[in-house]
Write a structure and sequence with these properties.
The chain is mostly helical. It folds into 2 domains: about 60 residues, no CATH class; about 60 residues. About 55% of the residues lie in helices and about 10% in strands. The protein has a two-stranded antiparallel sheet with strand order 1-2. A two-stranded antiparallel sheet has the order 3-4. Helix 2 packs antiparallel against helix 3. It is elongated. The protein starts with 8 loop residues before the first strand and ends in a 17-residue tail after the last helix.
Amino acid sequence: MTQLSGKSIVGFRRGASDGDPIHAINPATSEELEPAYHSASRGEVDEAARLASKAFETYACVSGKNKAIFLRKIAENIEILGDELVARATQETALPPARIKTETARTCNQLRLFAALVADGSWVDARIDRADPNRQP
């Protein structure tokens, strides 16, 4: 798993480490977990919103097939994290590993289900109503 830094990711860069750090607490042991997290600055939040708006415009033009590829890749990347994700999620939530694995599998299956939907295009519900030249008002 990628080394946690406790910093926001805005675009392709890490956020600053300004302000007071916040630690996640392991609910099973009450110990502070590392790393400390840092709040995003106003500028970072504004930049994230600007980039999200730009990404939305771009992503809206992506084909259903490519959106499906993207969603399947997200599921694959979650699964690659494997035991490291399970261990960290267990520390942060005190949920048992079996529950984390079940939730992770459910999430990945939902991503793949949605990928299949956007790939087949049925959600568009496109219809062509042909004119009836004999129709009377």
